Amino acid sequence: MNKNYLFILLLIFPAILFAQSSKQKKADRYYDNFAYTKAIEEYKDLLEDEYNTAYNQQQLANSYYKLRDPENAVTYYAMVVEQPEISPEVYYNYAQMLRGVREYEKSREWLKKYQEEARNPQGVEQLLKSDEIAVYDGLESFRVNPAPFNSQFSDFGSFENNGTIYFTSARGEADTKTKIYDWTGEPFLDIYKTTTASTNVTPVEGDVNTVRHEGPVTLSADGRTMYFTRNNYLKRDGKKDDEGVNHLKIYKASLENGEWTNIEELPFSNNEYSVGHPSLSADGKTLYFVSEAPGGMGGSDIYKVSVENGTFGTPQNLGAPINTPGNEVFPFIAENGNFYFSSDGHKGYGLLDVFVVTADAPGKVQNLGEPVNSNMDDFSFSYSGNDNSKGFVSSNREGGQGNDDIYQLNILAPLVLKGKVTDSINDKPIANASLRLLGEDGRQIAFLETDSLGNYQTVVARDKNLALEAKHIKYNTKNEQVSTANMDDRKEFVYDIELSPINDVEYLAEINKIYFDFDKSNIRPDAAQELDKLVNLMANEYPELVIEIGSHTDRRGSAEYNRRLAERRAQATRDYLVENGIAAERIVTYKGYGEEQPEVKCTNCNEQQHQLNRRSIFKVVKME
């Protein structure tokens, strides 16, 4: 090798190493200062140079984890978990991000590995349960559409009060001295407003917005008092804890002359941990919020505190089943008592999902399901309007305009399923028919009976495929599939059902058998009463009904004698029907069978058994 060339290499290598070392320090400084978007670019450059590969892969994976970017995070975590002596926390983070890309089984595998290797595994019991996601069993349906006031930046936390929509945004229009938040690379958050009748967006007036973070927000019913989240930043004095973290606090503001002023920090806020996400009950007596206070169940928990004449009680942790070792955030209490919140500690579709605990089932946490939830972060659920037919949810799901976006909810009332059950032959209503509705999982969701006019009615969820079973003792059971899809523009779904009568005259006419006296063929009075029922059936219920008659004897007497006796009985039965108005051609056959087809097979028959064998019976030949 040329000596001069070797000398040049010896000079270059230390310079390259020094440059990479400096770049590593820069990347780590960004990461330690929560400037994840800047740190990512530096770590990528270092990986391209194959410098500190294992370490930088993990730092890059963790940065994407902090930015809630599961698609990129799983790419790097997949490399990191193959490295030796990895912290179990990496397995947990990897599992969480796998949920964000809908790889649920793979996520369970890494959660199990975390559970096996972590000294004190937290937040996995719920997620490892083999049960299906406990999807909300309410009958209302949700339609999700992007709000018209979203920007290319983060927008979330919509709350409607008396026609004004308040929300949190990083669009950077609230302050001429807009600063960039290094964690996300976007401006700091501020509180904005618009109206239900306009898409014009303006910052809220007054002293609420600062150069730091503000939002989300909640208001009293009269719109005069605001509670909002803000960095620990009052009078331009930002305070950080020992680790350099500037926590969140809840503040209160009053509306005076159209501006929000009189900013006060709530007494249960703290410099050492975050308190935020306020949500006020409709009566203004309870404030719900989120905190990482020591002594909680893990992560962030939801608390409540009483409010009376501006005085706050002692905060109470809501405990299980709402709170978990994971993170519970963005509480919202509806006027009907239903409590909504987001969590990554309950089993869901991805990262944060929206859950509800209804007033009717306070111990049951239910996932609101799709389309409210997705594989990404879904949070900040709220109702708007007086009839609870509208609402909002925030999400960073695919297809949005910015990082987080606000989605408007159209909440459809259950569909009224109604109809009439009728006889397929005579079109007459069938009273007391029973109907069972079965869900897509085969479970019964409704059991109904028709009224005296054959009508039935119930409410069902939309977008479902339901199995319907209709039955009555006089009719053949009918099983059908009913779809409630594509009915957003309808309040009612009329579904009429026709049942075909069974081919059994005795059931249809509710008659007993026609019996005869020993060695006689005349129609007894009791037999006449039963035949009158058959006349009514054929004349009034089924005017096209065609039958055949078969008559029988007991075993006393010769076979030939009994055959002729049975024929006389068949003739007498037929003549009674004709004499009472039934056309002769509607009785196609009237035949005597003698003793060939006994009802009771016996050798030494007693009188009761003989009586049962002396009878006329009927068969349906044609119903229409």
UniProtKB/TrEMBL annotation:
Residues 503-624 form the OmpA-like domain. It holds the Pfam family PD40. It comes from the Bacteria. Residues 1-19 form the signal peptide. Gene3D superfamilies: Carboxypeptidase-like, regulatory domain (2.60.40.1120), OmpA-like domain (3.30.1330.60), Tetratricopeptide repeat domain (1.25.40.10), TolB, C-terminal domain (2.120.10.30). GO terms for cellular component: cell outer membrane. Its main location: membrane. Keywords: Cell outer membrane, Membrane, Signal. It is found in: Cell outer membrane. This is WD40-like Beta Propeller Repeat.
